[in-house]
């Protein structure tokens, strides 16, 4: 659709389809999260995570590296002074800049916290490190004598360029700032001069990222060359130019892929770019590939938390239905990447299931990645930690960590949280769609008129969502669409005080078409009760187990709540009902779920843990005589695990 | 015990306790496997695997590297000419030499196959590459300008020295050859001069191996310094000298360890050395640690195949009861190392359970590592390969491979197979013990008199073992001890034609004390039927599943035997009996097991594979209406998998 509107601002968040893009939905023109669950998490992000960023980037050496590169362009630098083990150290800086940029333009922005000045200082540092021809990567500038593009498979030069460009787009779109955009444009022009079928280098980066960034730069500048370059990078993959590995997304062209494969974050960043390209070009084949791959990924390779990635080794997806618990990889960055891909698909297609996955990922696999106090992080997000877990440490530890040697995840969390309000609502020619339920004020446009809706809710603790029309054109019908979440089995709807019989009419949406007036209100009541959930039987890792869900939240057991026995021998007795209770003082305020449980009476194995299955196979019959008094199981939201103690945890609980 | 005997030869296999060692059992003085199952596997090893070794070592560059080092000692070599990615390339050569050495002295030796000459040529090459002061490591000599011991954590210099010394001991013990022993002694003397608390370097190698080798060199030469140096290397571990990582066996001193941890092969080589030291020094604390760690390892971290290692990442043990199927690591080298450790413990303590684990490992986790034709290898030995498995390739592939970039496993298999006959029988002051059942002729000693027993059996296909006393001192009672395997639930014994009531009297042994005469025979009938086996309920990965065993063999299903549906959705119906059948033409001759099965009827999940557990949790109730006609399941021995087709495989089969 073509849609220009002089009276309303342009959407100010990530993913702003270009003027000629063909998408089912458009981003809201304004969005403000003002209270409730996500407001609290964004406050921690704004006041703890983002302000600490520069200190952490300084102590990890990222900023020092930029200063070395800046010095190098005039006076030379000693390679031994470089800090960090990876050629993508710069990207942490850019991701922090992007996070800060969304923050500056968003509902959490404050004039007096010095963030704008900090951002300007860092932009100046980045600009100083850039080579005259636009190139910038401190690893290659400082430690490789400026030799470029010799190792596209591992060098991450275009990956870093992508994050720089994305940060620049965020800064410009969010604040109007032009300095970083100028750096990004110089870099993009350099890439456009170097890379191409008949240019210096016919190739692409082992790690996708520059592709989405170039599409966003095209949207921000209107410069078509950037879109074409992104398309070129996507098209060249899968022909073996980088060695043909799935790890580098080079085994098969994306349009021909049958399932997601290889390095998870690389696959998802590539698919986000494919969705961006499909949006801007209208290419049906690429759109079909995106829909096919999203669907098969979710149906066969997604943990119940929305987490993705089964292998620590190569950070790989693993096989269909290979969804281990204690060795789930579920990198925090993969959750961010999944949300990026899904939001593009939501806008492209208008299908609510994409926002279903976003909701599940946000509340579970993503949010677990940062501690409640904003001080510690998880790189991997397992679904089980055994009693007495012997952690080998390092980035891939199941323990929350202050910062990582490979610190990709923390600033990824920061940039998603600071831009989160842009994922809540969309708009189209018929009205406004509410994808996520978060207290705030959201503005769409209807042919140049503002549609303003406010939302009040205690979601996810309560399923009651009250929406009020604050402003809209008079005397003209339009449709307010509410997503009925995938987890919901029962809902009630009250429109302007009257119970409504509206049902889910289209692709997961509850569509309310009326001639609305300011002050009209709608209450959606999603019945919310704790539910045991089972997996497809092909998920071998959880045979005979259930997970507990309540609303959009996946729950887990923690060792700290189950003294006297740990979690390795625990089971759940589903003949008793699950109950829930609000604890305002626990874990920043949560609803806990309790269930009847038991402990397995273990056979005396002696030295050998396997024995003839005479009679009953463990896991197939419920123990009738608990060894000890049966414990009550207490489940807490998965996102909040490991905030009290580093101990045992499990999402999937044996039923027998 | 002290035991010198002028009339009988000294034991000629690996692990020959020294003259003052205190062990419950001693190795047999002679051992010959002459027929049956292991004879066939050893024939393949002797005629295919070992003869191909030099060609493979040539094409992988290992021999070239030795020539470069040899040239370097006189005329200089170009570092760029070095081949291979690892500082332990030399160890592949030494392990092949050890394999060939045992072969030369064993029952498969032939005078006309040129093996002795090939060994001599390779020994000459090794000797030429050795530095004048005894040092030898081609990686450091050729690519590092001869700089030594700068990276003990990763350098593998002492690890390679250990394999060289072990090969030299094998060559001397097996053939009397002195040339390689001289090289080894020079290297050992160099190490003894450099390493020590008050010498040049106070440290040890990140990868244990030199420790067992030095003990064996002490045993071969009588030079006490080598034993002391081995003890020093073991004692220094666990104090953080190499950084304190479990990976390098440096987190905690072995005497204080509570469970096995870190890199599996490193842990097991270290424990083999600890057992060697306990044998030679009689130290009770070290023996207790070995017994404790063996027991907890087997009870909590051992796959049903005897395989060890749950993590691809860091080749780590993982947590207790963390025993995944598709991502089981179970490195072939770990199976070899486990056998080395267990055999030392068997001799030290006389407890039959150590040989129980050896049997299980030999027939399953170890033997799967080499194809039936001896041409292809497995580095990792998973317990499940899914339908349509997407293999990322490389050394850690679940596909059999001609050779590896890191080729540690193939020559490890070769050296174990060529020395296998020495693991069959032991002797003590009371008589002779039969640990494994393999057709052949085995000689123990009783105060200088030979005890010769021959064995005839079709084991593991049949449980009938016929033993005949071929020679023994007249008129003097002695004890023939037969191991009753851990898997056995029913056996009959016939002694000299009479049914015997002998029961298992001591630590897993059936002890028959008589005044034996040549010609006396004993028949042990171990009832052998296919049995479904279940795991401790804490092994989450196999909840609700059984594995099939028959005798010492673990079975698996392969996709090739189950057309029309794959293995991901298959189950076993245990209400029908398991049956077995001998197939002489299948997989070099195997007994297959058949069972009634079913296929799961999958829910139509749509795009989301999890759903409310209303009613039944998958895995807890047997499907009552099979989707298709229920298939018959055909199981083949696990060791023989992937010899017909690279396809799906599973050991653990859902029962519901």
Class based on secondary structure composition and strand pairing of chain A: alpha+beta
Rg of chain A, nearest Å: 25 Å
What fraction strand of chain A? 15-25%
Distance between the termini of chain A: 55 Å
Model regions low in confidence, pLDDT < 50 over at least 5 residues of chain A? none
Biggest protein-protein contact in the assembly: A-B, 76 and 76 residues
The total count of helices of chain A amounts to 14
Mean pLDDT of chain A: 93
Oligomer: homodimer
Got a strand count of chain A?
24
Task: Report the principal-axis shape of chain A.
Answer: globular
Q: Could you explain how this protein is built, in words?
A:
Two copies of one chain form a homodimer. By secondary structure, chain A is an alpha+beta fold. Helix content of chain A is 33%, strand content 18%. Chain A contains 14 helices and 24 strands. In chain A, a hairpin with a 2-residue loop joins strand 10 and strand 11.
Quick description:
Chain A has helices at residues 36-60, 62-74, 89-105, 115-129, 138-143, 157-175, 179-194, 210-221, 224-236, 264-281, 284-301, 332-349, 353-366, 409-418; strands at residues 26-27, 30-33, 384-385, 425-428, 431-434, 440-446, 449-457, 464-471, 478-483, 491-495, 498-500, 504-506, 509-514, 521-526, 530-535, 545-550, 553-558, 570-572, 579-583, 590-599, 610-612, 632-637, 649-650, 653-654. With 656 residues, chain A is of the alpha+beta class. At the A-B interface, α11, β15, β16 and β21 of A face α11, β15, β16 and β21 of B.
């Amino acid at each position: 659709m073509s849609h220009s509107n002089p009276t309303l601002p342009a959407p100010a968040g990530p993913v702003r389809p270009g003027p000629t893009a063909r998408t089912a939905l458009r981003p809201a023109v304004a969005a403000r999260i003002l209270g409730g669950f996500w407001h609290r998490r964004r406050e921690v992000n704004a006041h703890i995570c983002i302000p600490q960023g520069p200190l952490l980037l300084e102590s990890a050496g990222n900023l020092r590296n930029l200063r070395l590169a800046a010095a190098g362009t005039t006076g030379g630098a000693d390679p031994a002074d470089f800090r960090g083990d990876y050629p993508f150290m710069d990207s942490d800086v850019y991701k922090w800049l992007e996070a800060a940029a969304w923050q500056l333009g968003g509902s959490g922005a404050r004039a007096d916290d010095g963030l704008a000045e900090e951002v300007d200082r860092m932009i100046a540092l980045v600009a100083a490190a850039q080579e005259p021809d636009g190139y910038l990567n401190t690893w290659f500038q400082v430690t490789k004598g400026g030799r470029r593009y010799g190792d596209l498979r591992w060098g991450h030069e275009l990956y870093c360029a992508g994050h720089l460009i994305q940060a620049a787009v965020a800064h410009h779109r969010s604040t109007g700032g032009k300095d970083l955009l100028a750096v990004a444009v110089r870099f993009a022009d350099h890439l456009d001069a170097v890379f191409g079928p008949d240019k210096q280098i016919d190739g692409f980066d082992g790690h996708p990222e520059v592709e989405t960034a170039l599409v966003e730069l095209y949207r921000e500048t209107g410069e078509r060359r950037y879109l074409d370059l992104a398309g070129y990078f996507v098209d060249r993959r899968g022909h073996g130019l980088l060695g043909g590995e799935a790890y580098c997304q080079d085994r098969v062209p994306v349009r021909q892929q049958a399932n997601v494969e290889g390095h998870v974050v690389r696959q998802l960043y590539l698919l986000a770019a494919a969705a961006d390209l499909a949006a801007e070009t209208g290419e049906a084949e690429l759109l079909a590939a995106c829909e096919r791959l999203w669907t098969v990924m979710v149906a066969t390779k997604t943990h119940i938390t929305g987490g993705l990635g089964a292998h620590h080794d190569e950070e790989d997806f693993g096989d269909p239905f290979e969804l281990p618990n204690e060795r789930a990889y579920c990198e925090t960055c993969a959750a961010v990447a999944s949300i990026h891909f899904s939001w593009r698909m939501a806008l492209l297609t208008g299908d609510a299931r994409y926002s279903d996955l976003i909701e599940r990922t946000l509340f579970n696999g993503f949010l677990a990645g940062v501690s409640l106090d904003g001080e510690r992080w998880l790189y991997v997000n397992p679904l089980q930690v055994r009693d007495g877990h012997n952690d080998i440490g390092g980035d891939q530890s199941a323990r929350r960590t202050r910062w990582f040697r490979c610190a990709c995840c923390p600033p990824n969390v920061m940039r998603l949280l600071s831009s989160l309000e842009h994922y809540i609502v969309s708009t189209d020619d018929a009205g406004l769609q509410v994808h996520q339920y978060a207290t705030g004020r959201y503005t769409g446009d209807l042919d140049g008129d503002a549609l303003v809706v406010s939302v009040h809710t205690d979601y996810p603790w309560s399923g009651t969502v009250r929406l009020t029309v604050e402003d809209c054109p008079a005397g003209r019908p339009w449709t307010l669409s509410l997503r009925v979440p995938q987890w919901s089995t029962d809902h009630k709807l009250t429109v302007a005080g009257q119970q409504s019989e509206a049902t889910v009419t289209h692709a997961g949406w509850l569509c309310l078409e009326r001639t609305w007036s300011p002050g009209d209100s709608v209450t959606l009541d999603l019945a919310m009760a704790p539910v045991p959930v089972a997996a497809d039987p092909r998920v071998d890792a959880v045979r005979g187990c259930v997970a507990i869900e309540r609303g959009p939240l996946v729950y887990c057991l923690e060792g700290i709540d189950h003294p006297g026995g740990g979690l390795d021998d625990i089971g759940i007795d589903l003949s008793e009902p699950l109950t829930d209770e609000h604890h305002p003082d626990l874990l920043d305020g949560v609803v806990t779920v309790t269930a009847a449980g038991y402990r397995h009476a273990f056979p005396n194995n002696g030295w050998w843990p396997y024995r003839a299955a005479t009679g009953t196979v463990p896991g197939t019959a419920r123990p009738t005589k608990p060894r000890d008094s049966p414990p009550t199981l207490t489940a807490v939201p998965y996102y909040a695990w490991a905030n009290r103690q580093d101990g045992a945890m499990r999402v999937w609980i044996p039923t027998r």
